[in-house]
Amino acid sequence: MNIAVIYNVFVRDFRKQKKRIALTLIALTWGTISIMLLLGFGEGLQQQLVTNQRGMGESISVLWGGQTTIPFKGLGKGRHIALHKEDPAYLKERIPEIQYIGGEYQRWGVEVRYGDQVVTEHITGITPEFEQMRNHIADRGGRMINQLDIDLRRRVVFLGDELKRRLFGDENAVGEMILMRSVPFTVIGVQAPKMQMNSYSGSDEDKASIPATTFKAVFGDPWLDNIVYQPYDVNQMKIVERQIYEAMGAKYKFDPNDEDALRIWDVAESQREMHNILLGIEIFLGIIGGLTLLIAGVGVANIMYVSIKERTREIGIKMAVGARRSYILAQFLIEALIITFFGGFGGMTISYVLTEGFKRIPIQSDVLDFMGRPTISLEIGLIVVAILGIMGLLSGLFPAMRAASISPVESLRYE
Amino acid sequence: MSAIMDMKQIRKVYQTGKVTFEALRGIDIQVERGESVAVVGPSGSGKSTLMNLMGCLDVLTSGEYKLDGELVNTLTSNQLADIRNKKVGFVFQAFNLLPYATAYENIEIPLLFARVTGRKRRQRVTELLARVGLADKAANKPTEMSGGEMQRVAIARALANDPEIILADEPTGNLDSASGGEIVKLFNELWKQGKTIIIITHDASIAGQTQRIIRLKDGAVDGNGDLR
């Protein structure tokens, strides 16, 4: 086979059949773009949902006190069970599966003041474990509450980023003094911005967090509002839960099977449910993507197929004046490869430009926060292009092979 | 003179589903080098089938066909392609030009397949265009030419690799008499230059200008020789 012959014939025919080639290119490009954008936005949405989910914390459970419903050892039902400040240490000691645990005090409607700015906000008393469990991550230049703050009952405060903005605007807050219920606190850190989809006491961005020991000293709350814990292994959630009922039942004298004596929110479980929803979205997008791919493929195949009559005659003419079978097939192959390459490359490039452009839209909006950033994947792009290319190739190549295998006379007569 | 074409007991059977049709029923034909022959006969007598076999555009069902001493039956598809490219030039009634290509490009095709390169190829195409009197139509597409001009392009294409044999299947069938006359004149000139010309025609005046007439009827030779 002579490469020069194939190249010469190919280049000439390619120039001469611009319309058909342009249509095929457009179909292929369009198909690639629509699928890549569909899956890209789907992927971005998923990632964003997962990120938002993680805002409150991963693999954690929240524990509240409750009310007994089963009489136990001579004690009647209807007793309130409250959480005490020693309980986290008590539980950690008895349940080795727990990695982090910490008690939390809450108080709403506290006056917070900085200079002339006064806001009424939600104060929590927490421990350093919350940094890990609840993603209380400090933005640059600040820190979270540490053990020393707890031990020394320091009057320091870790601010939610939105609360910081309302008090300080764009000014630096770390190191400044604020008054909470007229008690001075030093700002040691500001929450790094995070998306948070679920909460049990309002969004973290609006909260002021102080050491639990300081909280107890300033506000004098007798009981913890809740305890947050995180096991080493998220799969041990149920085992830990059971052990908590056992341990707390022994301490506060209630039936360990009395589910209402304590209330536990297994956040990880709702995250698993979310995961299933995400999986559903993924399957849905996959199906839509597959159908789109099919439509695009049919489009490419159709254009290839429609030109068969014309091309069969063309093949007949070429064979009649001396074309070898291999020249004809090589021409079709090269044509399909080039169209696939440019269409696919073009489609992927345009998809990339569009998604990058979308990411740069400067609008701040909750919708965009939830849509996330479209993420296009090279692998998906290559698969899409390969499938479309193969469909186009087969729909063009098979008739061409047939045309080249019959005698020139039959190709010339083809209707 | 030695026979450039030697056909013995040639049969061609077409099969469409369960219907079989015997287009040629055991034909013996010899054509000498440099001869001009007309093939005549009513529609369906097997003229075109015979031409297609002679030009290696189709394969025979049985029999023996020697082209320039070479047994065609046994050749591979590539060898047949090379014969169509170099040894035989074919002129069709329906011209069979590539519609999207110019006159120049249509004539160029056999040269491309023959791997004639660069300047040589351009030279040859220009020469052929002049030869058929279309030097000024090089850039015209088939749709921009008259029937006679298209047929002259087709003849130029048939001549591209300087074949010994020119086969023409009713070359004037789609043309008016003036254009047809010019085409016949061209064939006569080619014959005088030593080419072997085989022409299918309905036109007695064209047949009358050849050296020999082969008459076909129902797939068999009905008369061979000067039947004028």
Task: Walk me through this protein's architecture.
The complex is a heterodimer of chains A (415) and B (228). Chain A has 415 residues and is α+β, with helices and mostly antiparallel strands. Chain A folds into two domains: 3-54 and 272-413, no CATH class; 61-267, no CATH class. Chain A is 55% helix and 15% strand. Chain A contains 14 helices and nine strands. Chain A has helices spanning 3-16, 18-54, 87-94, 129-133, 147-151, 161-168, 212-219, 237-252, 267-306, 308-320, 325-359, 366-371, 378-405, 408-413; strands at residues 61-65, 98-114, 117-126, 156-159, 177-180, 183-190, 207-211, 226-231, 262-266. Chain A has a six-stranded mixed barrel. In chain A, a hairpin with a 2-residue loop joins strand 5 (177-180) and strand 6 (183-190). The model of chain A has no long low-confidence stretch (mean pLDDT 84). Chain B has a single domain (3-225), classed as 3-Layer(aba) Sandwich (Rossmann fold). In chain B, the strands form two sheets. A six-stranded mixed beta sheet of chain B has the order 6-7-8-3-9-10, with helices on both faces. In chain B, helix 6 links the parallel strand 7 (165-169) and strand 8. By secondary structure, chain B is an alpha/beta fold.
